[in-house]
């Protein structure tokens, strides 16, 4: 393996741009980009000074200068793209949601394990410094017994019916794009739920515009969240314990500040540490550490939990009656 790991960017959309910016600014090596269009690949490579531009994803995964593929395609393309990269012997960081559904999640998780390759879900919020400190505070017992987690994720996003967020065949809807953040957050703080229920409001295209999720976790704890793609929210979050709570400032799933407040109203700790760029580099550092160390998983975002989250998202979609076209085939 190369001493310095080489990254290959699969797709040239919005998040591929933002992540590549953070990778480059952090000094990590982006060696190639792959697009379904050679013109787009060349333009992207030009913008980020990347040596190799490929006009297909197949050519990207065959590039010997690449060790890690970052998959930034729409949700239904995650599983086939991850499969292609793993089959070519590459480690993979795949955007959230891990896949479209649990069946696909089980499939690619098993393939990564068979191949002995790292497969990590790019739930970047988990890798941010404020989340690491929150876990230390919880482990130290500062909050007492965990009671509940409350989080919001509402954004006013493009209303164009053909945009991937609104298009059923591109895995549109609030739950898989936005709701996954508070659902994954609840898993991270309280563990996998014992039960989960949802209520939704739909777009004209037939995907969820807004979804409220309530989950019951071990230790009698509960989590609640509301996510929407057609109205903007404040996007704060709170973790409540028996002795104190953590108030996470907007926007809680980006690099943010928080305060630990006891029930006399006293601030026990304030965390406010800016990060460079958007902060997406922390998941890349974790990915590189895994590859360099030979470990396949990090407790920050285990493969088992990525699969388990997809099972919960499936169960929530079943309750609101949302089935994607590829699931009917
Ligand atoms: N972590 C975050 O903060 C964050 C933020 C936004 C999105 N995401 C995730 O990243 C993924 C991509 O989101 P995005 O906002 O970057 O989407 P986007 O701007 O629409 O870009 C998606 C890219 O995927 C490629 N693609 C492959 N098959 C496609 C198809 N059938 N239709 C359209 N595009 C296709 C295209 O690249 P080529 O034409 O170059 O092949 C396209 O540019 C989603 O799964 C989303 O959940 C994460």
Automatic annotation (TrEMBL):
Which organism is this entry from? Answer: Martelella mediterranea
InterPro entries documented for this protein: Gfo/Idh/MocA-like_OxRdtase_N, Gfo/Idh/MocA_domain, GFO_IDH_MocA-like_dom, NAD(P)-bd_dom_sf
What protein name is recorded for this chain?
Answer: Putative dehydrogenase
- Looking at the record, the residues that make up the Gfo/Idh/MocA-like oxidoreductase N-terminal domain are 7-119
Keyword annotations for this protein? Oxidoreductase
Q: What range(s) does the GFO/IDH/MocA-like oxidoreductase domain occupy?
A: 131-247
A GO term, aspect molecular function? nucleotide binding
Highest taxon above the source species: Bacteria
Q: Which family does it belong to?
A: Belongs to the Gfo/Idh/MocA family.
Signal peptide positions (record): none
């Amino acid at each position: 393996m190369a001493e310095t790991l080489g990254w290959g960017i699969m797709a040239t959309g919005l998040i591929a741009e933002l992540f590549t910016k953070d990778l480059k600014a952090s000094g990590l090596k982006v060696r190639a980009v792959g697009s379904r269009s050679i013109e787009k690949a060349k333009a992207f490579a030009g913008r980020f000074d990347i040596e190799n531009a490929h006009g297909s994803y197949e050519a990207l995964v065959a590039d010997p200068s690449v060790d890690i593929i970052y998959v930034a395609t729409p949700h239904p393309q995650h599983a086939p793209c991850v499969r292609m990269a793993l089959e070519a012997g590459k480690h993979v960081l795949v955007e959230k949601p891990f896949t479209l559904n649990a069946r696909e999640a089980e499939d690619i998780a098993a393939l990564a394990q068979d191949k002995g390759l790292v497969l990590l879900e790019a739930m970047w919020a988990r890798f941010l410094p404020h989340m690491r400190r929150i876990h230390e505070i919880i482990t130290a017992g500062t909050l007492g017994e965990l009671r509940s987690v409350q989080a919001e994720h509402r954004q006013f996003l493009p209303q164009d019916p053909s945009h991937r967020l609104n298009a059923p065949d591109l895995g549109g809807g609030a739950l898989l794009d936005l709701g996954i953040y508070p659902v994954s957050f609840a898993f991270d703080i309280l563990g996998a739920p014992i039960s989960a229920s949802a209520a939704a409001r739909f777009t004209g295209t037939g995907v969820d515009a807004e979804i409220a999720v309530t989950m019951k976790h071990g230790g009698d704890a509960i989590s609640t969240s509301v996510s929407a793609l057609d109205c903007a929210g404040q996007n704060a979050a709170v973790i409540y314990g028996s002795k104190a709570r953590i108030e996470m400032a907007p926007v809680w799933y980006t690099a943010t500040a928080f305060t630990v407040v006891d029930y006399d109203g006293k601030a026990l700790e304030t965390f406010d540490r800016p990060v460079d760029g958007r902060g997406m580099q922390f998941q890349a550092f974790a990915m590189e550490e895994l590859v360099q160390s030979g470990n396949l998983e990090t407790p920050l975002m285990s493969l088992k939990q990525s699969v388990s989250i997809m099972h919960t998202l499936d169960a929530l979609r079943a309750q609101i009656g949302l089935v994607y076209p590829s699931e009917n085939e």
